[in-house]
Amino acid sequence: MRRGLVVLAGLLVSASVYAQAPSPQERLKAIAADPVALRAAVDGGKKVTFFCANCHGEDGISKTPDVPNLAGQNPAYLLEQIRKFGSGERKDQFMQGLIKVLKDEERLQVVHYYASMPVAPSKANAALAAQGKELFGKLCVRCHGDKARGDELFPRLAGQKVPYLQTTIQRYRDGTGIRNNQLMAIATSTLKNEDVTAIANYLTQLP
Ligand code: HEC
Ligand code: HEC
Question: Of the CATH numbers 1.10.760.10, 1.10.3470.10, 3.30.1330.30, 3.30.70.240, which one belongs to the domain with range 22-115?
Fold first, then answer.
């Protein structure tokens, strides 16, 4: 009985602590809803990203084929991926180390900065893109959206680099442990490598 009370008191205390401290995702939304705070976050983010620019480009359009564009990506998605690198749920030797340097506040600024940058689609093979469009319509559209622009839970894929898309889609499919997501494992399970290439060609040229 006494023990039950102690446990109950503990739960109440942690519940009230939780209620007082908004989660990073909640704070991200609060900033987005306030134009002045958003402007300040974007400006602050630009400064923090000076060492991200080497790989992701100054404006979030990556300079290397295996590095993703961050420009125009949903800020909630970016923040969640940063969390995953930090916890080791997502693996990349550079990103896991780098992300530890960022303070919580800087993470919010960085993702708002990149989200505010314009997307730059790439050229694609037209025949492959047409094939990819059909596959995307069957297998991917219900989560990533008909323009592949995603939302808070599902990433934007439109305008992303072909090699990054190929590698990433194959990692989910092959269960390599580098990217883990049940929904993506199921969605990609029937794709051949040629299909993956076709889908990547379709996605990269979308604005
Ligand atoms: C040395 C190169 C390098 C630097 C510097 C770098 N990144 Fe990355 N970043 C990568 C690579 C490579 C990936 C893709 C990893 C993978 O294959 O999953 C990535 C992925 C990401 C992702 C996930 C994007 C997505 O679409 O899933 C985010 C967010 C990110 N980086 C943010 C940052 C931030 C913020 C900084 C600066 C603090 C930074 N990166 C610096 C190489 C780098
Ligand atoms: C049932 C919902 C669902 C379907 C269907 C789906 N996806 Fe996803 N996709 C997700 C989720 C959720 C994530 C984020 C997973 C994570 O955090 O790693 C994701 C992530 C991705 C990423 C990683 C993007 C990045 O920059 O990090 C790519 C690429 C991708 N999906 C491509 C596809 C393709 C191609 C298809 C169709 C063959 C597809 N998805 C179908 C839910 C879905």
Answer: 1.10.760.10
Higher pLDDT, residue 40 or 18: 40
DSSP SS3 for 137: helix
Q: Which ligand is nearest to the CA of 83?
A: 1
**Residue range 175-191, pLDDT digits in tens:** 999 999 999 999 999 99
Q: What's the alpha-carbon Rg for the chain, to the nearest Å?
A: 19
Q: Which ligand is nearest to the CA of 103?
A: 1
Atom from ligand 2 closest to the CA of residue 164: 29
Total-model pTM: 0.92
157 lines ligand 1 (CB under 6 A): no
CATH top-level class of 126-204: mainly alpha
Measured by CA distance, the residue closest to atom 14 of ligand 2 is: 154
The answer, yes or no, to whether any atom of ligand 1 lies below 6 A from the CB of 78, is: yes
Band (pLDDT 50/70/90 cuts) for residue 154 is: very high
- Tell me if domain 22-115 and domain 126-204 are identical in fold: yes
Domain limits, the chain: 22-115, 126-204
Phi first, then psi, for residue 49 (nearest 5°) are -85, 10
102 within ligand 1 shell (Cβ under 6 A): yes
Residue 129, C-beta contacts closer than 8 angstroms, at least 6 positions apart: 198, 201, 202, 205
Is 165 within 8 Å of 199 (Cβ atoms)? yes
